[in-house]
Amino acid sequence: MATAILQQIHPVLPVRNVSRAIHYYVDKLGFKLSFKDAGNDPKYAGVQRDAVEIHLQWHDENDWTNGMDSALLRIYVTEVDSLFNDYKTKDVFHNNTMLRDTAWRTREFGIYDCDSNGLIFYRDL
User: Fold this and answer.
1) Model confidence, pTM
2) Please, which residues have CB within 8 angstroms of residue 111's CB and are 6 or more apart in sequence?
3) Is the dihedral of CA 48, 18, 24, 22 positive or negative?
């Protein structure tokens, strides 16, 4: 019997509006649309930048008010300083966004998408 080899992971992030989330990831963060449901009001989509693909799934407003937690992703980036500089002009930083070296030996910065899902971009020191 052949050994199973895990090759990729496609995290699914909860979003309130898939079209708005696609716009955010494509226009602000430089992802490309991989796929989406048919029609003008998609409920599921995928966006990709380089080797990273993230899926976006619609959730009803009641899910959010009933305490659904948002996700946090750590994305390894070879040139984290360059990405930080690219995003400076995209209006995606929050008040505490900063590029920093951490005690756990990474260089990183974090942002939140339009549905409060956290994205931390990092490289090892």
Assistant:
1) 0.80
2) 87, 92, 93, 94, 97, 118, 119
3) positive
What lies within 8 Å, CB to CB, of 13 at 6+ separation is: 21, 54, 55, 56, 57, 70, 71, 73, 113, 115, 117
CA atoms of 99 and 109, how far apart (whole Å) = 5
Q: Tell me the three state secondary structure of residue 13.
A: strand
pLDDT tens track, the chain, 125 positions: 777 566 778 898 989 899 999 999 999 999 999 999 878 899 999 999 999 999 998 888 777 676 667 788 989 999 999 999 999 999 999 998 999 999 889 999 999 999 889 899 999 99
Count, residues in the chain: 125
Q: Could you tell me the two tokens for 107?
A: 């260089």
* Ordered structural domains, the chain, with CATH: 12-124 (3.10.180.10)
Query: Cα 6 from chain centroid?
Result: 21
